[in-house]
Amino acid sequence: MSDALTLHEHSGAGTGAADPDDLIAELAASRVRSGSTPAIALAARVGARNAFAGSGDRGDGLPPDAGTVFRIASVTKSFTAARALQLRDAGALDLDRPVVDLLPDAVFRPAGPGARITPRMLLTMSAGLPTDDAWADRLESMPPPEFDELLATGIRLVREPGTGFEYANLGWAMLGRILERLDGRPLPQQVEAELLDPLGLTGVRFTVPAGRPFATGHARRAAGWEPQPLTGPGAFSAIGGIFASTADLLDWAAWLASAFSRPDDDRVLAAASRREMQQLHRTLPPEPSAPSTAVVGYGYGLFVELTPELGRVVSHSGGYPGFSAHLRWGLDREVIVCGLENGGYSGAWEPTGEAFSRSAAQLPDPSPRPWAETEAAVTLTRLLAERPDDDARWSNAERDAFAPCVALDLPIGDRRAALLRVRDELGSEARLAPEGIRHPTAASARWRMIGRDRQCEFVLELTPTDPPLIQRFDARPAGREEDHAEAR
Question: For the whole model, what pTM was predicted?
């Protein structure tokens, strides 16, 4: 079901500028040309601009359009998670209650650890269940009573619950069954009535939506691509049963991401709960074959990556008999990309990831809006760095702008002497680096000064008090760790 878990190995790929329409068209055509999939629908939203390309045969001799629906497989999990949080917010679901209380027929082996499994662990893939893609992907239509019998036969664990990540679909089927018992309705009916219809996503369903063009799923066989039968809703629909188009999924991702830009919009699901879905709750073990400086983990039904190049990135892949899907968006750059293919486990994450990385790399590096006091502190400290011998300015700064820790960490006289050495090393022609002044947070700033044959890095941080004061002002020649003038 996972198809591919994350895409952090692509986070810096292909940074060359490209028109979104041309980029999407090129990547889509390449997938079909290479025989990777019978057809692909690839869509991007960069800011307010949409781009789409469909290539190949969706099953009726036509290429997919933006409204063609595919099986989205495990991308479904974010919908299941959102419904779980709706019930949690309504007081019906306790995420930390033992699962054995909610599913009394379930038997875990060993029983002691099994009694400690909670819905929160199911949401974060940390319940101690083993990876089960090949098995679970074939069980969607299992009737709920049969699923209850399956749980009663005994479920084995591979680790202590709550101690590590392992991608397990069975946990999400359990979660879906819990939601059904709490609400009284089948999960597809809940998701459609409480999430999809209020959001206007009436073309997103657990069966092929009436009147919508549909891409027939295919499996790769020795003789070529072979059409695959569809499965209907059942106990495993929570893991991957939804049908949707690229247009639908762009809107879904935009709504989830809007919880950060519109933090008070609590319609359908509270913004705080949507932000909670997109937080890193359980880290993934590193992959030796794909070294990266990104921190990767799982939220609630979503993968979350913290990357130095592109900031916070949220995604999920899906693989199912006949289909492959990937949905990816940035929380620090306004880019959403969705790729849907009708080739089983074909790896839709590859073109989707490349489209995302190349599109996001063209956007300016986002920076939080600084406080007015932060901007004033930048002006002041730049003047202090340029004139470390200005007694009056330094005296005023120590009295009015510095927190007491500045002098305690490094006496003002020593600090001024260190800055004088930095200024002399840079020379009179020192200039601000091209990237200018960056603000990692509203209360901090960083910048580089470029001199004759050296560069100097400056770091500024303000206190959380109102009004804020300067708590840290560091300056050091880049690459000269041994004689840095660091002052905190």
Answer: 0.89
